[in-house]
Amino acid sequence: MVDQASNLRKIIKTEKGLRTNQNIKITVDDEKNNVTQFESKIKAVYDNSIIISMPYSNNYFFPLENVSFIKVNINDPCNLYFTAKILDRKLTPVPVLVISRPDNFKTNEIPEGKPCRLIAITSGKGGVGKTSFSVNLAIALSLLNKEVLIFDADIGLANVDVILGLKPKYNLIDIIKHNMRLEDIIYDGPEGIKLIASGSGSEDIYTLKDREFNKLIEELYNLEDMADIIILDTGAGISRKVTNFLFAADEIIFISTPEPTSITDTYALIKIIVNNDKYKKIKLVVNKADNKKEAIETAKKLQLVCEKFLKIKLMVLGYIVEDKKIPKSIKEQKALMLEYPNSLAAAGIMKIANKVINDELWTEEDNYLSLSRFIGRFKSFFG
Ligand SMILES: Nc1ncnc2c1ncn2[C@@H]1O[C@H](COP(=O)(O)OP(=O)(O)OP(=O)(O)O)[C@@H](O)[C@H]1O
Ligand SMILES: [Mg+2]
């Protein structure tokens, strides 16, 4: 099932043209016609240029200093080639190459449309604040001028719509059962956010079949043109109902509270995700912290175990303190960010939203290789 979902996702992404996070192969021919191949990844696509991660091979980065042109190959699932000129090399904040975006490829292969980030919000343990965070992060991002769609992927449990006091007529259950399209069940939420509700419901929703999951994930990628950011509010834990959405997302924000049980459950789920895809962007938000000190301690514990046992750098997006305004706003079915914008929790969420926007260039391999390690490897290769 995982393979099917990720294959499907790859096909949809490649059909749509150059996409961020897409793996590419870089080929360089020297004067003697020797061919060298490197791995890379698309980080951003602009009208006339493309930013790609610094080409690497065997964990070494190659800034391709004496090279002017490279051949770029997007080989998954079909073979697409184009030649690009290296326009610039940047080593900070992360090592990238800026290359030209060829016209013929642009007109022939790339439909218009903007890159959209698919961010899943999840947790190892239930009740840690995923849904309230998802809703308020969506509103905060919208206040920062992003177009946001929130997708309630906690199938079978109506959540997001209830928190916002909305009563959508159709929901995900209609997609699965009545063959409707996702775009037909999008509702307007506060501050211009769009919402797809999950619907509370019947038992058989819990036993979604593989093809039904595939249909949902396929539909999800068809929504890409409708928003800059799609936020998936998932259920908690390691059931397939949750992990299939996590495998399909570009980035995952884990919510953990300082409770030891929440920390261990968070780690257990991160491990499953990283074992499936070590380059997945994994980020952390600490919720319900008594204060900043407790939040930092919680984040450090998780960062340490992730670094030590999974060899990944867990990016910490920020923290939200325990704040009575959150349950109060939920009871009132109003969004915290709009009702209590001066609350401590709202301030924490706004900081996180800013960080979510600012780390757009920080992608998978940065997760895996910190800049200091990069410099170390760079020096050991060229030194
Ligand atoms: N920072 C916070 N301060 C105080 N209460 C909070 C905070 N964040 C969430 N809560 C409360 O915790 C409870 C659970 O929140 P929420 O429903 O968002 O969690 P969840 O992780 O989505 O739960 P589930 O796993 O059931 O989907 C709610 O009562 C909410 O008001
Ligand atoms: Mg929830």
List the helices and strands and how they pair.
Blueprint: H1 2-15, E1 23-29, E2 35-45, E3 49-53, E4 56-57, E5 60-61, E6 69-74, E7 80-90, E8 96-100, H2 103-109, E9 117-123, H3 130-143, E10 148-152, H4 160-163, H5 172-178, E11 186-188, E12 194-196, H6 210-222, E13 229-236, H7 240-248, E14 251-256, H8 260-276, E15 281-289, H9 292-310, E16 315-321, H10 325-331, H11 336-339, H12 344-358, H13 364-368, H14 371-382
Parallel strand pairs: 9-13, 9-14, 10-12, 10-13, 14-15, 15-16
Antiparallel strand pairs: 1-2, 1-6, 2-3, 3-8, 4-5, 6-7, 7-8, 11-12
Helix pairs in contact: 1-6, 3-12, 8-9
The protein binds adenosine-5'-triphosphate and magnesium ion (MG).
Magnesium ion (MG) binds next to helix 3.
> Hetero groups bound?
adenosine-5'-triphosphate, magnesium ion
- The total of beta strands comes to 16
Helix-strand string:
HEEEEEEEEHEHEHHEEHEHEHEHEHHHHH
Roughly how much helix do the residues carry, as a percent range? 25-40%
- Main sheet properties: 8 strands, mixed
Shape: globular
Question: What would you say the CATH architecture of the largest domain is?
Answer: 3-Layer(aba) Sandwich
Order of the strands making up the biggest sheet: 11-12-10-13-9-14-15-16
Give the CATH level 1 class of the largest domain.
Alpha Beta
Total separate domains:
2
From the helix content, strand content and strand pairing, which structural class follows?
alpha/beta
